[in-house]
Structure formats: structure tokens, C-alpha cells
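Figure 3 (text version): C-alpha cells given as input.
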């Protein structure tokens, strides 16, 4: 009896393996032929949507790390802290401190940079990512968008409205 139970359990195990492989193979073939992307049991790839990254405004030779401090050689640096609106989550939140630089020219601002700007007629600063740069009859402009917001801000941001480019976040 022991030998026949062993053989039966092996046969059941092999049958289950064959059923699993047949299902996986048919899913793969059907997915490839139909253009539909079904979940594949051996596919562990995940690709997040691409967001343009900020430019490298601080070079490696400007950063000095010591046992008791960190020094960053940076001209025109400003400390900044912003109101928490959740528009830039998860990049930074209410308690984050940031370092900004005042851009010397329009050419220093790139798609992907996070800038602070003053909307026309407002006193407060908004911090959003540059998603488009262009020129029109009024000169340079940028469209910006919060990372956590689906649409860009409605107005074109002019260079004169830009307060700073965020170059560091201190959590």
C-alpha cells in the first residue's frame, strides 16, 4: 500500500505541474497573439511613468562631507520652506527644508527642474516642476505642474516670476 500511495502522490504532483504549465503557456501565447497584456506569473517587471528629473545644478566637487558637517559650495543659495499643499507629494512635504538658487538666466532653468514662482498679482510662492519651456512674442516661458496634480498650471510662467530653482531637499 505504501508504494502505491507514493506513486499516486507523484502522479498527482506531476499532473498539477502540467496543468500549471499548460495554463501559463496558453496565457503567454494568447497574450502575444492578441496584443492584450495579461499578468504573467514569471514577469516581475514594473515600470513607473517617466517624470523628467531635475538638472544637476550641484556638481560632486561642490559637496564636502565631513564627520561633523556637510558643506556645499553654492553661490546665490537661499533656504526655503513651503506651505504644504500636497501638490508635490511625495517629493517633499510640510516639514521639508529646501535649498534654492536664484537662476542667473533663462538658460539655467530646464524641463524637470523644480522651481518656485510667484503667480501674477500674488504674494505667495508656488513650487512645481517645469514640464515645458518655450518662447513666444513675450519671450521665454515655462509651464509647470505639481507632481501630484494631473494638469499643468494654467498660466505661462515668465522668467521674472521665478524665485528660485530647488537644488536640495533636507528631510
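Below: residues designed for each position.
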Amino acid at each position: 500500500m505504501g508504494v502505491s500511495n507514493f506513486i499516486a502522490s507523484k502522479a498527482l504532483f506531476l499532473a498539477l505541474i502540467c496543468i500549471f504549465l499548460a495554463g501559463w503557456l496558453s496565457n503567454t501565447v494568447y497574450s502575444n497573439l492578441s496584443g492584450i497584456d495579461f499578468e504573467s506569473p514569471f514577469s516581475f517587471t514594473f515600470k513607473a511613468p517617466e517624470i523628467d528629473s531635475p538638472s544637476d545644478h550641484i556638481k560632486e566637487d561642490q559637496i564636502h562631507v565631513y564627520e561633523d558637517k556637510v558643506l556645499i559650495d553654492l553661490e546665490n543659495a537661499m533656504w526655503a520652506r513651503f506651505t504644504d499643499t500636497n501638490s508635490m507629494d511625495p517629493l517633499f512635504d510640510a516639514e521639508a527644508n529646501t535649498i534654492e538658487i536664484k537662476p542667473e538666466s533663462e538658460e539655467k532653468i530646464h524641463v524637470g527642474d523644480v522651481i518656485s514662482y510667484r503667480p501674477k498679482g500674488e504674494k505667495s510662492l508656488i513650487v512645481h516642476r517645469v514640464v515645458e519651456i518655450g518662447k513666444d512674442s513675450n519671450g521665454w516661458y515655462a509651464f509647470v505642474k505639481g507632481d501630484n496634480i494631473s494638469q499643468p498650471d494654467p498660466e505661462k510662467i515668465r522668467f521674472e516670476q521665478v524665485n528660485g530653482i530647488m537644488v536640495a531637499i533636507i528631510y
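The helical segments are 2-34.
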